[in-house]
Amino acid sequence: MTVTLPAAATSKETKPCTPLPSSYYTERLSDVSAGRKPSPIWDLLPVEDTPGMLSMLAGKPNPATFPFKYIHLGVRSPTDKTKIEEIAIEGKDLDAALQYGVTTGFTELVDWVRDMMAQVHGRDPDSEAWRVSLGPGSQDLLYKAMNALVNPGDTVIVEGPTYPGVTPIMAALSCQYAVVDVDDQGAIATDMEKMLANWDRSVKPFPKVFYTIPFGCNPSGVTTSYARRIQLLEIARKYDIIILEDDPYYFLYYGKAPKPPSYFTLEKQLGGEVGRVLRFDSFSKVLAAGFRLGWITGPSTLVAAIERHNSCSVVQPSSLTQAVTLPLLKQWKISGFLAHTVATASFYRQRRDAFEACLNRHLADLAEWTVPEASMFFWLKLRLPPTVRCQNLGSPGEEDEGDSAAFIRDKAMHRGVLLLPGANAYVDDRSTARVRVSFSLLSDEQMEEAVRRLAEVLREESTS
Ligand code: PMP
């Protein structure tokens, strides 16, 4: 299907926008979220920063008793990886690194991220309709967002396949699913429209949210095209659905076509109502996964609901992690950070190319795939040997061709090659011939050997 992009999406002019009112979100909060009380201590913590305030509020330990004297970092320059810059964290910065902090995250860091988001996504930096809040990784923030928006039994629209890390969240919250299959352009908008137009509310509650991974989807590797994004956003508007835009691979786009805008950008570009998009971003793929630092961006009321959850669970993102991230980003500035992300994306493009060459050499007649344009995954459809086929009677469509979980467990693992079974990425009980392959870590030689082993075991099993 070809879609003509509306003039609003292609022109530089911005159209008038109207933020959805705060009541729009409060009416949609889950019962548990609506009933969640602010934390008496952590909600008052920002008041400590008032000039002249003598605080006896929090049970903060005295950092004079802590054993750490300083933290010295050696950081690669974003433009010249051979150049190492030294950053020292000491004095009051060290105290902050070792102390409790506000739930939202260090104010300076939140402001830095917000400025970056305004610049990168073309949003008004002075608008009060959206804000940013840090959390311990986007995985945790996703859990809390789902928890804030869905009651047990509510329906969530997910892509088929979807992120295997999010299905346990939805299962734990007793969600029901509405699956929209994905092609090489992203979730199939016409399927979504048909599904919603024919929804039978007596069978399942009408969905409130659409969970999507628009860049380099984990696991399918698909980047949702510009045209498809417009269609999906328009459907979300028409059917009153909130978009949960899970975008940890936003900065890992290396496709040839111009990078499509995020939904957060697009809702502003198209004009009309804004506030239908809640974004999830992460430093995991560009600074350090072990930092456990991510952020949400979106309507203030929804962000506040998630913060209320944070203040009674993790309390705050790690101070140490923030204290390390902040001086780095201040030193780099937004331009340096973006230069670093460009270099990171080109690293992954090079890994993608190397992996694709291995696939072409060894698996051309044993698997099918689409070449990803972002992130670190190939979504292979294996031509499985007869011994692990035909175990899937009654499951839908093209996936009826085997059980990659059995193949990996019984065959591939014993040859020393490990892959993620595709079934983990579907919310129904289907088995599938798909596997998710991450090409991020292996060296050229290891890739070659891994794919060679996979081909060998597929071929042997097929002929045995
Ligand atoms: N969403 C997706 C699609 C992911 O692939 C991941 C990481 N594997 C996450 C969320 C979680 O990222 P974080 O490390 O920020 O928790």
From TrEMBL:
Give UniProt keywords alphabetically.
Answer: Aminotransferase, Pyridoxal phosphate, Transferase
GO BP: any one term: alpha-amino acid metabolic process
Domain Aminotransferase class I/classII large per the UniProt entry, residue ranges: 99-454
Select a single GO molecular function from the record's annotations and give it.
transaminase activity
Listed cofactors:
pyridoxal 5'-phosphate
Family recorded in the similarity comment? Belongs to the class-I pyridoxal-phosphate-dependent aminotransferase family.
What name does the UniProt record give this protein?
A: TdiD protein
This protein's species is: Coprinopsis marcescibilis (Agaric fungus)
